[in-house]
Amino acid sequence: MVGLSSRHEGDRIVIELYPGDPVELGDLSKSFAALARIYERHYRQDGETSPKLYVTKLETGSVLMEIAPYAMIMGALTVMDGAVIVADFTNRLWRGVAAFSNLPSGPARLEPPSLEDARDIKEFTKPLLGRNGSALGIKHARYEKTEGERRVVVEYNFTESELNRAAINIDRAFEAPLLEGIEAETAPREQIKREVMLFMDQANRGPGKERGRTGDRGIIPDIYDKPLPVYFRKSFQNLKSQITREVNPLTSAFVVDVHVQYVGGDPDPKGYVVTDIHQVIPGDDNDNEDLA
Q: For residues 142 and 154, is the Cβ–Cβ distance under 8 A?
């Protein structure tokens, strides 16, 4: 396919993902798909057919990806004059993340994106969430014939804490506060923890709750040594059933992603919100008769 070289002149969107740990291939493909959906919506509002985004370069270690707009003209794949396309989309992507991450160095108030964009922004950044030292870089870069090298036009960077904060604030945009009586303003400290071991101390047969009083309590030894209320993200209605359907939750273990909930300046967590279950490890006793 002639022309799909990162060394041809033109503008590129450069995405740099620094996950800190290996990333599951499925998570990476979902991240890229979310990025493509945001791009398609960017052009749909003008009612015109958008040039397709193509990957012109992919590096490993960190995940570095260069993307350029191409279009099919007279049966041939042709690189577009993409300066405006790249500049507009790079800015849209940055503003979408920054609006939820509360960047101290950024504008005091950014207009949040649509809920569709917000959902896909979280999916796009998901491989980086809850990972120590993770980071995201978004660049508008340009290759020029006269120089033969890439020149960065504009660059935006997000740290681990900013990405985690953006994900939490996106969740808040979709749902009411998860713990009864705790407003978002009084619970500013939340943490995302990925793939931690959860042991249920108490579980009932009812559906998982997302807030209020709950009969589900559990211990995550890596975070806190006492049982705390366990909630389940509403958008994942099957999570509670994964814990109670086929195994005895009181004798089994679960590898989960959670939001750890804090209140005010108290250093001790007040509850867990399960957002994903990676693995169910059955105990020796699979009898569910102990459930209330």
A: no
